[in-house]
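Go through this one:
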Amino acid sequence: MMNRKYYSFERNNYYYGKLLTSKDFQNEQDYINNKRRLINRVLHGVGIVYGLDVVAADDSSIILQSGMALDAAGREIVVPRTQVLKLSTIEGYSSLKTDTICLGIAYEEKGTEPVYAVMDTEEDGRKYNSTKEQYRLYLLDRKDCIRDTKTEDRYLTSAVLYQDQDIQVIQYLPAFITPQTVLKGRTEIRKISHTPSVFSFSCKVTADRMKPEQTVIRAENVSLEYGKKVILEQSFRPEDYIFSGEELLLDFQDIQVVGTGSEESAEAQSMKVTPVQDSVLEHVRKTSYQGTLDVDLDRTYDEKLFIAEIHLIRSDHHSMIDEVGRPPFDQYVSSAEQLMILEQLHEYLVPESSCQGQLPVSEVRIQEQGSYHSEKERRVNSSGVFEMSLGNGGEMGKVYFSDEIMHGLGNGPVCVEIGVEYISRDNISSSDRESIILGDGSIFASDSTVTDEKVFELDQAIKILPERGTFIVGVRPRSKMGKIGLRIRWYAYKPEDLEQRVYSQKDQKGCIMIQPDTMVLSPKSSVHINPVFINMPEETLTYTLLDPEGGKIDNNGVYTAPAQEGVYEIKVEALAHPEIFTHAFMIVSQKKTEE
């Protein structure tokens, strides 16, 4: 199992009276092991299969949880039990030179049960009765860790736009684009130093044969903590005529980073995107099978597997753990079970209907803690369109109602606006021209630039049903319209603020709130949950932890976090009135919370 190459598969042929030697039994094991390794390598991949989470136990120790991984040779690495390890006892600790390091794991074998082999030709005749498959851990500076090539690199490309001692900017793009899809780019700005700073980033993007042809990626006055990152997203729609096989170019120019008292720039870079005629699924299926097995198996590869990135606070004589992060290269093995779960969730979690309109050119969001929030986090909105029939008459003064329409923003008060949609045919360009008129359409009755058709004169009203999450549209023609159907576009908006959430509760019944309802704490620490009673007297509460592995909580509302990071939910319920309850969320993270 320690050999790094595969051999032609050849198995024993048994027959009556065959003399079996140690070589025959060794060949039997090699045949089975090599077959399994080959399947692991080409079918499953390289990375963590299950578990192997790493969390900080104290300033100098980590907790390695049990789990399994597959290395680049297809060998199984199994950690059978959770253990606490001192960093100073792990291989490579004394050679560390920086404050950002990686914890790696590798397959290893060790002989057990030593015996004396009488017929062994070696001098001491010492052999082992069995071989134990185990693992070894090691530490390495992050700058010396090399990411091995992965299959996904064929389909997702990246480029470092800018890097200095303080930040690193990486651009990600898909390597291909298919018809009737949108190209989405992602810019990550990561803080790589402990030095506090505020900076701004800007970059002009020229997209060859795409809409928009030019846009600017910008982040203003960003303040990040060490190891956190800002994510900037861009969307481009390709022109229909580009799918002829010629590569598209996205040029990143005028790259500027402005810090406190300094301004730096970087050289322009270009990234290629290949148009393909197939769908995404068809293209991946065709190209993922390509390759030469013997060349791939014989290539030089690194069998190291990195399972955690650790940030240290170093002095001349001592090192202290500041934070334990995720695996640096996201080395995970995707399973068929995950694909099945995604397929099931796809039926319930669908894109917002607002995504069907104009695409955002650049959207900003931040990972973990930070100062940026996307516009989608500040408000919830949706839109849609429906046809409303006026029957056979469209009589003046008669009221017509639509069916009950679900806006998709849940229960509670919302704001809904409607407009009548006009579509006319331009005989010159043979393309549709669209206008949407909100409010009194008679104002535009004489404006020929709005539509070639007659503008309808209507009185409009909207009835919102907060309890049902729906609304009904009513219209009343001011003049006879005849047999006609109206195409109505609607827009719904719901602010996510505390007052509305309190209002949505039945005030007369009372409710319970947790302030704050989301708390961040470090592993194995404790916090007290503070309930607030609204329109009801204080009474005894029960606390139920919905995740059995999410720590502990007593009858007084004191929660103790587990060693493993995660988000855990607690149900807080009135003992005498079980119908009154709320939920609190505990975010267990290595990041030290402020006092």
Observations:
- Confidence is low (pLDDT under 50) at residues 353-379, 425-432, 497-508.
- The first helix runs from residue 22 to 44.
